[in-house]
Specification:
With about 250 residues, the protein is of the alpha/beta class. The chain has two domains: about 120 residues, NAD(P)-binding Rossmann-like Domain (Rossmann fold, 3-Layer(aba) Sandwich), CATH 3.40.50; about 120 residues, Dihydrodipicolinate Reductase, domain 2 (2-Layer Sandwich). About 30% of the residues lie in helices and about 30% in strands. It has seven helices and twelve strands. The strands form two sheets. The protein has a six-stranded parallel β-sheet with strand order 3-2-1-4-5-6, with helices on both faces. Strands 8-9-10-7-11-12 form a six-stranded mixed β-sheet, with helices on one face. Strand 9 and strand 10 form a beta hairpin. The two termini are about 35 Å apart.
Length: about 250
């Protein structure tokens, strides 16, 4: 079976994604779209993509496309995803899927209503190490998991124009980096009953460091930290009643 992909936004992440698709049986990149036709053409020339579009609307309307990979800046995710779904296309959207819960709900409801596949492209969820972790937990090797601690952060020089520090582009430590420890907690513990969080907002208005405690049924806890202005260990520990796993 051949799956025909359309690439929304020909940036660096999209280039890595297309490189990866070359390793997937049946995957074909049929089209690329950008707000700049010149950029779409340059990307198409680089990867030998036949159809190039100067707008995302034209991309999602392309009949040669089955699935749209969305690699736009964070703040544009909802608009492009909804446009693709409304055009009858399946969607794989770069993380973070949305800027807030309301956006995520609208996109999920639209996909369900139209019977389409929509997923967040969170690469770490598919790492071999994470699959081993899931197997170890399923086998009961550490007993019942009761606590997940995870952090991800590194020191980035303050650049007000960079997306990490620009709220208009969906910047901030939580959305860009905190999503990784959060998804590990979600994988192991599921959906929390409540969340308590604190953060520091920098001079640009974007959060530069954040810490959160996720409370789950039965006293299970997830503790996550993320930062863009200080380095963190970038480690995780899953503690259970009979042992623990460290990443």
């Amino acid at each position: 079976m051949t799956t025909r992909w359309g690439i929304a936004a020909p940036g660096g992440i999209a280039a890595q994604f297309v490189d990866g698709l070359a390793l997937v049986d049946g995957a074909v990149v049929a089209a690329v779209g950008s707000r700049s036709k010149e950029r779409a053409d340059a990307f198409g020339d680089r990867f030998d993509i036949p159809n190039r579009h100067g707008s995302y609307d034209d991309l999602v309307a392309d009949p040669t496309v089955d699935v749209v990979y969305v690699a736009t800046p964070h703040a544009q995710h909802e608009a492009v995803v909804l446009s693709a779904l409304e055009a009858g296309k399946h969607v794989l959207c770069e993380k973070p899927f949305a800027l807030n819960a309301s956006q995520a709900k609208r996109m999920a409801e639209t996909a369900r209503a139209r019977g389409l596949f929509a997923m967040e492209a969170l690469w770490s969820r598919f790492l071999p190490a994470y699959r081993v972790v899931a197997d170890l937990i399923a086998e009961g090797r550490i007993g019942e998991p009761l606590l997940v601690e995870a952090d991800f952060g590194f020191r980035v020089p303050l650049m007000p124009e960079h997306r990490l520090f620009d709220l208009a582009q969906g910047g901030g430590a939580l959305l860009d980096l905190g999503i990784y420890p959060l998804q590990l907690c979600s994988m192991v513990l599921g959906t929390p009953d409540s969340v308590v969080a604190e953060g520091h907002v920098g001079s640009t208005g974007a959060d530069e460091q954040v810490a959160a405690v996720l409370h789950h049924e039965g006293g299970r806890l997830g503790v996550v930290k993320a930062a863009t202005r200080i380095g963190l260990a970038c480690t995780a520990r899953i503690a259970g009643t009979d042992g623990w796993i460290e990443l």
